[in-house]
Amino acid sequence: MKVKVLANFKMNKTRKETKEYLEKLEKVDKGRVEVTIFPPMSALLPSPLVGAQNGYPAEKGAFTGEVGLEQLREFGIDKILIGHSERRQLGETPQFLREKSSFYLENGFQVFFCIGEPMEVHQQGKEAIGAYLLSQLEGIDLSHPNLHIAYEPVWAIGQKVTPSLEMIENIGHFIEKNTQKPILYGGGVKKDNVQEILELSPVEGVLVGSASLDFDHFAQIIQIAKSVAERKQ
Ligand code: PGA
Fold this sequence. Notes:
By secondary structure, the protein is an alpha/beta fold. Helix content is 38%, strand content 16%. The protein contains 9 helices and 7 strands. It has a 7-stranded parallel sheet. Helix 6 crosses helix 7.
């Protein structure tokens, strides 16, 4: 099977740095691994390896500071992250995230829709976590083949702590049972844990933040994912 490895640069790297990174990435043997990097908007580049961290749900118009379909299309972008907790924290509402998802799905994008519980919900246990995650998926077109779910527990993002493998597997199975889709996992993924995470049965990929910023580290993650993809096929 194809394994997906995504790199979320967040607000890191200049256009020049992204270009140099991409040039090196293009030369990497990726085997059956589908690799996408999500640089800041100012560093978008026309490449099948590049996706957008954000996009406004309109082709163009009077939306100051936003980037829409017309601008993303100019770069041939057809992959987008939606619902990342860092954007939810900035005030993106569930209704707005539904609008974004359906707009970009209708326009042929691969949508990586991020969900994940904060620590206070996590501490309440399995049922609370399940209910929280399902509520984040309300109104999202789960039957769409281009809709992918990234499970990123908020408390593990940018931290050294990751959930146990058992926890990722259980939550992954729960999401899979309710959506008929495998998950991508994100939150503290690095070369030392990526193999065991990718080997879990409900996991079809990973979303890597901090560990993707160093090209050599990310290239090692791709190599590990490549061998998992060969075994998992
Ligand atoms: P992290 O970020 O790998 O730095 O935890 C993941 C993400 O936010 O997508």
